[in-house]
Structures
1.
Amino acid sequence: MSELLTVSNLKVAFPMRRGTLTALDDISFSIAPGEVLGVVGESGAGKSLTGAAIIGLLEPPGRIAAGQILLEGERIDHLPPEALRRIRGRRIGAIFQDPLTSLNPLYTIGRQITETILAHLPVSPREARDRAISLLTEVGIPAPEARLDHYPHQFSGGMRQRVVIALALCAQPRLVIADEPTTALDVSIQAQIIALLKRLAAEHGVAVMLITHDMGVIAETAHRVAVMYAGRIVEIGQVRDVLQTPRHPYTVGLMRSIPRVGATGRRLAQIDGAMPRLNAIPGGCAFHPRCPQRFERCNRERPQLIATEDRLAACWLYDHAASG
Amino acid sequence: MQPLGEASRPLVALHGVARYFDVSRPWLNRVVERVPRQLLKAVDDVSFEIRCGETLALVGESGCGKSTVARLIVGLYRATRGHIEFNGEKQRPNASIWSAEVQRRMQMIFQDPYASLNPRWRVADIVAEPMRAHRSGARPAQIRDRSAALLTQVGLSADDGRKYPHEFSGGQRQRISIARALSSEPQFLACDEPTSALDVSVQAQILNLMKELQERLGLTYLFISHNLAVVSQVATRVGVMYMGRLVELADATTLFSHPRHPYTRMLLDAIPDLEMSGRPRTPVAGEVANPLDPPPGCAFHPRCPYANARCRIEIPVLKAYDGRTLAACHAVEERRLRG
Amino acid sequence: MKREDNKERVIHISALVFDVSRLTSHVSRSARSALARARDSDLLYSFRRSPITVIAALLVVVCVGGALLAPWIAPHDPFDLASLDLLDAFMRPAWLAGGKATYLLGTDNQGRDVLSAIVYGARISLAVGIAAVALAMVLGVTLGLVSGYVGGRLDALIMRIADVQLSFPAILIALLINGIVRVAWPNAMLGNIALLVLIFAIGISGWVQYARTVRGSTLVEKNKEYVQAARVIGRHPAAIMLRHLLPNVMGPVLVIATLHIATAIITEATLSFLGVGMPPTTPSLGTLIRVGNDFLFSGEWWIALFPGIALLTLVLSVNILGDWLRDALNPKLR
């Protein structure tokens, strides 16, 4: 089965007055059709930037400095704006964090959905409206015919996010990039939206790139997960494997510092220090100053993703090929 | 009302506290459109106590009133009904809600690390503000030294006092907020979602720090959060709020192992399963109702799998079970709940 | 209990006074470090990249410098009536036939050297402009802060007064105030206090824009957590307004003030031109233009033209500087 999206050695840089900042450094991963890949990391790790780079929404002066992005075998990383516009919506859909600002408050949601369908698919307005209604039913909005004529502010937060999901799926994209889709929602609504996303991805056969900082959401929704740190991927593998038996020391520290229900009173394990700023990334392995298992090599050389058992981890601990 | 057999004296006590906000449209619009006044009952008839040295957590989703309760306690809002006591002293009717002495003993930590520090002030001045405001009679040099000592106590360096807030990360700013809160030597700290805006690893650092400080300085915390996992880590007792009312209040261990109220159960079920155990969960239903137009009777009844006719007309009150847990639910009272 | 309240009030007020004195030392300290930060800042970077702004800034510096150093750089003293020689009246500019080198830009109908009159006149124009803006700023910012923070009826009252005032053109209000003062004070004293009256009139006519802007910013800032933190600490509302809110709402005020200086100078020139501003004995640039206006068509064009060019240059430079400042301080455009 060929991969739907392949990102190879992607590098995103921001040329600034005081020098160039490398925000994403040599990122590589792929997503198969129907698969949900979780991209998890803390603020500043570069996960939102990865999504933005794929969909072509990098804010200038940021630019793709190296590498390539292949969507269904075609390169999309250096397309002219017009071509990118056609891809967005039709082949890549997007769901962003805040449903309040993702929808235009001045248009009814029916108009926004039908407009998007008509822009990308060769159907009649009547058919577009029917599709919109069936989509709204699929995402769980009651009385969809009536609600087509409602404005975004007439929906509650959870309902709005469902509309946004419908909007992302309406042009039948092959890939959906969801950037923190549940962060702004209450916990009970979050659970509903996660379940919905998972179901829709399976039913429509779309690949989903789920960007979030919340490991719980990843555990519930994703098949595979990529853990990012300081603009690099440090571990990537099946969700069950990475979450239950993390290998990279950062992932280990991260999993141990997540509070769990029932662990009352015990001190949380913490990772000392903080993620380095973009202009102060340490040489060698970016995590080594905070790593409890660092050794001499970590300071000198930057590790690539090394295959270890069932996953890839960017850590010299797993370089069994070299001696020592 | 409080479960019997507790020897500690309450530090903070709320009695029938309510806070309403008038969100009516302007008078002219009301007359022309013939709509009535609209009252948002952010907090309605809430009573509980916080004992010295404990961490009481208030959990609930957005709009449940937990942040409003915190602000009522520290005097940012005045209660519309009911009264609040701190160490036995009541709130005052004039402009400053608490006396200066009481105000000095309570502090607050806010959710947004980027908005809770004045961007034009240096960190040392931010931390020293409570000391200077309360005229403790200390000389400027003493204040400066204590400010530096507080910064080291929260894990920053004394030199950081000369910098401005924008030079720090979210976690570091939250540490500065904590240092500021500690500078007037308070007894009580209201923490409104102190780690919700922070990354998971930073959150762990801040929670550990807060716990350490509590043990060392004998602080009492009111911890507001929507994240039950975080709450289970820090709280001694937990109160669950829904649409302005307290629906359950219990010891942390009891609440997480034997939740009584259906909403508490729903909240616990909704927590994502990190262990991936595949445990069976009650599907979550509906959304929080419009606070301006709450359902009659028990506000949770439209989403509750155990609702009956009584739930639709009568608002349940907190009743004690097993001498320790308080729950406001007809189904619990009538023993209709399983487990 | 009343005694306790009074005692608290005294404590609060003396705390406030202490805070103000600390504020001034704080400001001077932060000014010194601000200079260091400014050198390396983005503001200076954008300044250097725009040549027009640099030229405008240089011109402003020249004008201000000239105004300050007027007694030393003006070749003659145009206000010393004894030194005026009527025989020298209507001299042409030095580079034309019939001109004298000592009177570089010619003389007016009373024998006053036009160049000196411009230098001294610019001084008055700038003085009135800056002082009036300072008055408007202090009044407007204070009212805006109080209005935004206190809210309720006081806010409604202040904003209604502002609305009423805005329905009149500023010139009209300045004329009104001027007229009232002239009626109230005897004519003899008028020459001396004309400057103060002008400053007062232009200042009062211009406070509204500051108040509205500051009120808007105050409404936004007052809900931020750092203000709530100050309230929890127990700070007095005046202390919160002065120490917490004021530094954070001043940004747009500086831009408005810079542009307002240009408007104030033009307003003063207009009033003087209409005859209700500075008297011809101590003329500002507007008065000079007025004086010269009478002779424009009889051939002595230099009496009105050169003051006009000076006024234009000054106002244009200040405007360009104000525009740059507004764009540079606008984070959304960066």
2.
Amino acid sequence: MVKARSVRQTSPDVARVSNRRGSRRAASASAVAIGMLIAAIVAGVALGSVNLAVSDVFRVFVDRLLGNELPSTADQIIWNLRLPRVLLAAVVGAALTTSGAVMQVLVRNPLADPFLLGVSAGASVGATAVLLFGVFSGLGLWAVSAGSAVGSLVAIVSVLLLAGSGTSSPTQLILIGVVMSALFQSITSFLIFRGDPNATQGVLFWLLGSFGRATWKQIPIPLGVLVISVAYLLAHRRSLNALALGDEAASGLGIDVVRLRRKLFVVASICAASTVAVAGVIGFIGLVVPHLVRIFVGVDHRRVLPLGLVVGATFTVLADLAARTVVSPQEMPLGVVSAVIGAPMLLLLVRRRSASAGAS
Amino acid sequence: MSFSVEGLCVDLGRRRILDDVDVRVPSGSIVGLLGPNGSGKSTLLKTMYRVNRPSSGRILIDGEDLLALPARRAAQRVAVLAQDSTVEFDFTVREVVAAGRTPHRGLLERDRPEDAVAIDEALLLVGCAELEARIFTTLSGGERQRVLLARALAQGADHLLLDEPTNHLDIRYQTMILDLVSELPVTVFAALHDLGIASMYCDEVVLLDQGRVIDCGPPSEVITTSAVQRVYDAHVLVIDHPSSGTPYVLPTKSNKKEKTSTS
């Protein structure tokens, strides 16, 4: 390979320049995103039915971190009500974005979201059974979460079983997921139809997602699931990239596509299920934010996954802030807010996509 | 650096697609896989890169069972250039080529400098270095196919499988891709659509019909008027290429058609 040898001298410089350009862009995007997340968290804690000064927020943070607990009203509002709520929103937003980004790759469809393959529909059956018929009532406040988690797991296992051990193409997987979702939704509808009409308001509110009942205790499980999932996915970043290029391409690159797809499905679904269990079904975030992130740093998962965490968290904290301030003192369901912000963003993305496709 | 396929049978659903296929690809040679649409060319290649599973038979690489190797190890030995397929995400050209390094790095390994070198070399070899920051899906068909070849080169394998890589390409790119491939110090097994082009570039060809090997050998012995007429069920005349002397297939008008038009 004489030709190859002759180019060897010049190439490392070319590589360094282009890598530097890419990573510099990713670094500045991350810096901006982290700044925005911090600002969103401070705003989320300061603003609400009672607006607090940013200086109060910092004073409470400093007091708490130094261990001087002062039983002030500001401390109550910030530490026990708003901060857990804002942090839970951040964790859920990060998890939904991670799940959505992976789901879009594993069914190779940019319009996929974390709930495409039945997780939310399964969770709805469980949560509805709890809210309307008192299933798991022994678990007290955790009953809805438990019902939702069991429902999600049933959905995940049934999709896995139906997909079988053989080759399941993205299209087959989508079909199975959509059919199972429809089945679970009809069960939910049946439960609502048979249930107490006065209690259905609560079901509707849960179905549209909310952080209204956030407590510190809700944070560890979704956070743990998120940390493990992201570590797993970052380790598989090259396989994710290869799978995004197509099944046959991935196969030629030494990837067992069928096994990888099953593993990714389980990781993305459990990630999504953990969010549903604590906050209900929050649409649009897992669909829109991965696209938003790809606009800034491209499709390489070593950049999409970390930046997705930050942008997803920011988006969700701000959406929750809007949900509880716009029609204050009432609260809007989070699903309404995320759709109102997300739908126009998605339309812009689709237009952008078709414009770039038309140019080629 | 050789392939051999021994007694390979592949069933998809209940249909037998490949029936007792034997092929030998000697070290450093280019062997063409020919046959009409649906004869099993793609199925054979896809079985070699693990998209399909064989019902029986073996695929050997330097005497070792290719399908028994871990997938990653196999991909270090065998790279694939397939027909251009749609990519749903906006990968840059460099990212597409970088995917070729996938089999060389474990889960927790970072990229090494030699990865960047392999990517640069591959891009330069196919003449696409200046395209590296472009979005892959916005390239022309010929450019895309060269980038995919660069990915296969960056994979650093000494065996190359080509699955009709020149389909839908202009004549310029058809010869460019195959010129590039024939310069490489690798063993090549290539499903090809165009019999004339196959004759020019291949040391040997294998003729497949309804999942069976009908004939194999040097192009001048396999690609004959009678064989092509029979296997492709088409009216053709095989002549010698005026400059290369290899077989060249000319379509001829069918007699049946003439009869119907005169009646």
3.
Amino acid sequence: MSAPTGKASLSERFFETLIRAYPEEFVHCYRPELMEFFRADMDRARAASPLGLVSFWARTVTDLTASAVRQHRALRRERRQATERPPSHRGREFVHSVMQDLRIALRGLAATPGFAAVAILTLAIGIGANTTIFSAVEVFMLRPLPYPNSHELMALYTANAERGWAQVDYSVADFHAVREQLTTADVGGYFWDNVNVADDRAQPVRLDAMRISHNFFDVLGVAPVLGRSPSLDEEQIGTTPAVMISHALWNSRYGADPGALDQLVELDGVMHRIVGVAPEGFWFRSLGIDMWPVFQFTEGQESRDAGRWVGPLVRRRADVSQETFVAELEAVGARLAADFPDYNGGSRFYAITLHADTFDEEFKVGSTIAMLAVLFVLLIACANVANLLLARSMRRSREVAVRTALGASRGRIIRQLLTEASVVAVLGGVVGVLLSVVGIRALVSIIPPETPGAPDIGLSGISLAFTGLVTALTAVLFGLAPALQGSAIQLTESLKDGGRTGSGTRGGRLRKGLVIAEMALAMVLLVSSGLLVKGYLNLRAVDRGFDTGDVLSLRVSVHGTRYTDDEAISRFYVRAMEEIGSVPGVMHVSAINRLPLSGWSSVSYSIAGEPVDDETRLPFVVRHMVMPDFFGTVEVPVLVGRGITVRDMATSQQVAVVNQAFAGRHFGSAEDAIGGVIELDRGDRTIVGVVPDLAWTGPVPRPTMFLPATQATVRTMSLLVRTGAGGDPTALAVPVRRAIERVDPALPVFRVATLQDVMLQQTQGDAIMGRVMAVLGIVALILSVIGVYGVMAYNVQQRVQEVGIRMALGAEARDVVRLMMRQGMVLAGVGMLLGLGMALAATRGLSTFLFGVSPFDVGTFAGVTGLLLGAALLATWVPALRSAKVDPNVALRSE
Amino acid sequence: MATTTLTPAELQILLALAAESRHGYGIKLDIEARTGGTMRLGSGTLYEAIQRMDKQGWLEVAQAPGDDPAESRRKYYRLTSDGRSLLERNLESWRGIVADAVALEVLPEIRPA
């Protein structure tokens, strides 16, 4: 040979690599000859010319490739003919082999019902939880509002950083100004109200209503199903105001009679004309509103001092960009701020989408948290099923090896394993949808019925499509890893080894990784749900400074021709207090304008004797209007001075009771506050008493003053009636109603509920999150324990022989248990550490829902760590204990 | 039963083995020599055809001629009787085709070599 051997051997090695492209059988048969052929051919080519070598390689490579491809094709054809059926159409063949895979998968599952049940149920829980939560999130977050081109609709607010508010309505005057000056949008307006409804149709009732501008429905783009929208002149005082009624009210009160149109109905003592019926199911901002009377503003209300209570609703013109609209709104706002500095100085006029206004931050954050939580549950479920499948495919490696030896291709085996995963996923999806039907019903039952969108929550096409997507994703997630693992099984090794592969190999590492991931996810989920549950419990158990037990609340609103002046209104409440006080079983009775957690009004003020830096920048104080004996009724001790009493009449000294926060802000101590004078727009108030800080308006008490309702005009108040200890406040509802009827039989009484229920209702957002997360946390805990247990049990089974040898060599049962547990606990520990890190990063996002709990609450973190640690110990201890019971003789014979 | 029609490569391989048994590379060299280098079989194509014809029973592995130990390790191939009769039948049909072509004056008359 002329060429140096080194060079030749390199070419040979390359050629030898090329040969491997042939089917195994061919290589086995002809390799020596091919090599010999190659050597001879190359020598000849090299001898011919330098260029000969190039063309030689070109020929050799193309020839080998082409013939290798032909060989593979022929081989496949041959196998198909030999093993299966007469050659048929390609597509049909594919369907056939898929059906075959399906049959094998179903047979395999039927043969291992325990595995099938655990895998399917685990996935069903994950998929069902996802479908349930998504069904609600879709309604809240993804579905457009039920008005045409709803993306053009916006709500306007003002923010004022200097005076400390972020989202406040408009005064009537500012609303009019914006309505007249904005050219890039149609402007309507509304404000929330309740009205006493009286007509000759049925009993007087108190209904939730919304006072609207005449064009409110036009701006929304909603046409009445009967009648017409109100007209502009119906906003003018002096005309009979128009009212739109809901479809539900039209049915219930008017028997769906078209003659209801043009009928007169008395709302809060004012005659209104019914002009239209809203479409069935129509809602705006909240469900359960039955009347939309057109507002008519008095001259007094038109003044900027009359408060900010109109919510402008605007529709941007279709041909105007959002930027143009915002620019115009800000220009109008800047003008209003410049023209009325006392009132609008420092205010910013801005718009948010009506969708964001309807489904506010609490919905958004809640939806995100819940979706993440169910995703975690699904991931844990996937990890579990992946582990199960992995263990199974390892156990079946011998079967796979035999099939490979018989000619099954790698692709075919992957497909078989993926088919099995898909069958499990689809069955899990089906059961999951069934579970979600129950889940959705449970979820809807804890969502307040007036929540916008609540009746629409259900299994929709979109949520089913989502489920399908989740199911497919799941199948790939947990199916692919075992499939790739399974197909990589080495033929000869698996056949040699008694089916006992996987320990310490890639499969083992993958399974361990899954356990770690699972523990980490469970940690995050459990910490989150622990914090939310703790926050919710705090909310219920917190010392608010007042007592909600044994108190009945009833709302009354005095309107009508009998109540035209302050004295008449005040006289009604005083007499009602007397009548109710004489009802047997009533210990205390009082009234307040705002129930707990139901918002508040605040006023600007100054303190007599304290210098004022800037008249336009006065501080604000929360103002409650109360009837006598309020503090006795809610069991609040008066710290210094006295409470509000029956002696505080319109004509007597104008007084106020303040809380400690207010006293501290201006007087240093409660004692020094007595006698202090608060200067308000409507006259000065002398402080006569100081009470503790109450969490009446929210978890954080604010500087607050209580004024006698008898010294102001308060038409609507909530009566509070306290029974003796252990008495049932709801039993008082009827006698208290009778007592009010004795004062004025025409006045409706509404929103009758115990104070406790009112509080519960107001904290429902936190309650929903607390409950949803508690359920998800428990599910996550159970699933991850199953996961750890499954892997440990499998490991023990795999190492029976090793344990047998150890015990034969003198290891004690105790040593074996320790050995087995160490492995499991290391995995659990790593997972939990990882989870702790993730949880620390994640819980900050929960703070909207955390009442009185730090996102880094040590107790919760420690508790969850302990809980998971205990669960992991148990899940490793049981299988480890079993391993120690191994009989060395049996274990060694099992080969 | 209709005679299997051989591909040009198969035909040439069988032809190469008609006179004597040869090893793989010998078959290639013989074909190249006879065809004046117009048919140059690559190793893949050659052994692919050998495998196929082996399976069909047209050729078989034979003892290397002579006593050279280096040669005796090599695999020689020879025609089976099936292979020989298949070759003959194919050549016969070619002869018929060529005769037709000559009669149709597509080909000139074959002159003796």
